[in-house]
What we know:
Layout: H1 5-9, E1 14-17, H2 24-30, E2 37-41, H3 45-48, H4 50-57, E3 61-64, E4 76-78, H5 88-95, E5 99-101, H6 103-110, E6 115-119, H7 124-134, E7 143-147, E8 165-169, H8 172-175, E9 184-187, H9 201-209, E10 218-221, H10 225-237, E11 242-246, H11 252-255, E12 260-265, E13 268-273, E14 278-283, H12 292-305, H13 311-320, E15 329-334, E16 337-341, H14 348-361, E17 367-371, H15 381-389, E18 393-398, H16 403-412, E19 422-425, H17 429-439, E20 445-448, H18 461-478
Helix pairs in contact: 7-12, 14-15, 15-16, 17-18
Amino acid sequence: xxxxxxxxxxxxxxxxxxxxxxxxxxxxxxxxxxxxxxxxxxxxxxxxxxxxxxxxxxxxxxxxxxxxxxxxxxxxxxxxxxxxxxxxxxxxxxxxxxxxxxxxxxxxxxxxxxxxxxxxxxxxxxxxxxxxxxxxxxxxxxxxxxxxxxxxxxxxxxxxxxxxxxxxxxxxxxxxxxxxxxxxxxxxxxxxxxxxxxxxxxxxxxxxxxxxxxxxxxxxxxxxxxxxxxxxxxxxxxxxxxxxxxxxxxxxxxxxxxxxxxxxxxxxxxxxxxxxxxxxxxxxxxxxxxxxxxxxxxxxxxxxxxxxxxxxxxxxxxxxxxxxxxxxxxxxxxxxxxxxxxxxxxxxxxxxxxxxxxxxxxxxxxxxxxxxxxxxxxxxxxxxxxxxxxxxxxxxxxxxxxxxxxxxxxxxxxxxxxxxxxxxxxxxxxxxxxxxxxxxxxxxxxxxxxxxxxxxxxxxxxxxxxxxxxxxxxxxxxx
Length: 479
């Protein structure tokens, strides 16, 4: 089904689930088509504070509290990504004919320009940001960046034109019932994540796969078993062109069937076309961002932007882009102790990549790492293996809801030995940062890379990263 704004919203009864910042600009936009609009949020009016006053001033009804999903009788329900579409009130509404949709799906249906979408368990924010910088609009067009990365775009569609380009990050939550066209679809990788929200790994994979349904091109990680399986299925079906990317060289037989393959060989990124033509795209040393995972992120973005970028643009971005906030972000250095904020690392694989990046760039600097947070039912075995096998680690400070779970995995691991990093536990986040700093000596690095989400103590990873940065600056000021 295609959800065009005028046909969908004109005269309809519409509700927005969630009074978050991303829904606020949608209220004004939807008011252009209907006056029957409401906003529903589990928080009370007092908890919403000034936002509640703003919603009412815009002429929308506000429904709050534990019964915020009661009497869900609207024609169009724009759900917050965190609300499962099969939640009983939403499922009942769908059964009576209501349209249940996410803001990003509406954007993809109504954008007058090509949309390039990115999802994955790790690296999607960086890849999407790189992609937005690589995209080179013509005839005065503009490149937009939005989606799960924090910027809603649906309300901007009527200001866009065919010369614009849009790069969007999509989470598995947004993709649960996503059914919209995209020019290119990237899946960076798929590893266990959000298993406290999804019913299991099968549902998580199925949600990610939905991004490929109406994609003009699929850009997939050849080295990840799951994304390789998805790509091989597409090649067999012959409906969607596949671009592979790999950190290792690929043989001619491995490239067979793909429209294009991007891989690393002899210190450079090469592309191999379906006709066998080989071309160097970029030197690895041109990439300012540290870590092999960022080379993969660049290949994914290049594959998606292929006809919409240039060699000059690729090199210019690679040599200048310093990274996404809260992703291995340098905070400060005092007494030859460096502090890095990688609060966005909400899975064990992201933490492994962060450690690897520091090892590659500063192999002689021991690392004190701060880990722990909200429990998403992610297996802790892989994290324990990473923390105990990385010789660069000097100490591990565990905090948050998962502190004991991770400690148990570490102490039970056969990799634990006399040379393993020191393991410390500190429940309070700020106290954990201070403990990590106290363990650091000249030449060390203190790294916040939690490997878990922030929701046990913070509304999002940004606030967690800001608290880390604030605490570090306070520690330095006290010295």
